[in-house]
Write a structure and sequence with these properties.
By secondary structure, the chain is an alpha+beta fold. The protein has seven helices and five strands, in the order H-H-H-E-H-E-E-H-H-E-E-H. It has helices at residues 2-43, 49-76, 87-102, 119-138, 169-172, 181-191, 215-227; strands at residues 105-109, 144-152, 155-162, 195-200, 206-213. Strand 4 and strand 5 form a beta hairpin.
Length: 228
């Protein structure tokens, strides 16, 4: 009976790992393609032929990227992610792709190294950044989004600021969000002992502030030092 329970737990963990792998690598590329196609359909009559061709090529490039990332995800499912991979580089690449695909300006400021961040911190921050920027584009109609990641003593701070149309935060809490949504963004921050605050008003853009403690990372580093 115990063995069966352990096997079920392993299957659940593996299923979650596969879902996370596909979400991290593929989902947001697909979102960008869908949004760009929708925008193109909406603005078709007012677009020049040159812009139509340019937009179609960008969609084609995004689709190729999604296909490539899907293949990479499938090949890597049976092995852990490489610790040598640059997480910050992954974020930069994702934001650059979203900026190009949606015709917006995304400015990303980050520290030179992400070694202080645990894998759980990286996963949570990636999803919060992806959702926050996606909302700024999809719902906020923003043309400029600033993403800033700062590592402080024992904590990491993330801010996402856009110049979009804004919204009433109190009303939004009563709505059901698509994707992982605002409620799950808060849950991701809370799962690591942190907080997520949203400051927005209609017509004045949105500011998301995330604060995550890194005590667990510092504790592990201290233990490794003592053990060495």
């Amino acid at each position: 009976m115990t063995i069966q329970i352990e096997l079920q737990q392993l299957l659940i963990e593996e299923r979650n790992r596969i879902a996370e792998e596909l979400h991290d690598r593929v989902t947001h590329h697909l979102f960008g393609i869908v949004y760009a196609a929708h925008s193109m359909k909406r603005d078709w009559n007012g677009m020049t032929e040159e812009r139509k061709v340019e937009q179609m090529l960008e969609i084609q490039e995004a689709a190729a990227t999604a296909s490539r990332e899907l293949r990479v995800a499938i090949y890597s499912l049976n092995s852990p992610k490489s610790s040598s991979a640059s997480w910050i580089g992954t974020i930069e690449s994702h934001l650059a792709n979203q900026a190009k695909l949606n015709g917006v300006r995304i400015r990303f400021h980050a520290p030179g190294s992400d070694r202080q961040l645990s894998l759980n911190h990286q996963k949570a921050l990636y999803r919060i950044i992806s959702e926050g920027v996606g909302n700024a584009i999809r719902h906020g109609a923003s043309s400029i989004v600033d993403v800033r990641l700062t590592l402080k003593q024992g904590a990491v701070q993330l801010t996402i600021v856009d110049n979009g149309i804004g919204f009433d935060v109190r009303c939004q809490r009563n709505k059901t969000d698509s994707g992982i949504g605002i409620s799950n963004m808060r849950a991701l921050a809370s799962s690591l002992g942190g907080t997520l605050e949203i400051d927005s008003r209609e017509g004045s853009g949105t500011r998301i502030l995330v604060w995550l403690p890194m005590a667990d990372v510092n504790d592990r580093t201290s233990q490794n030092t003592k053990g060495g």
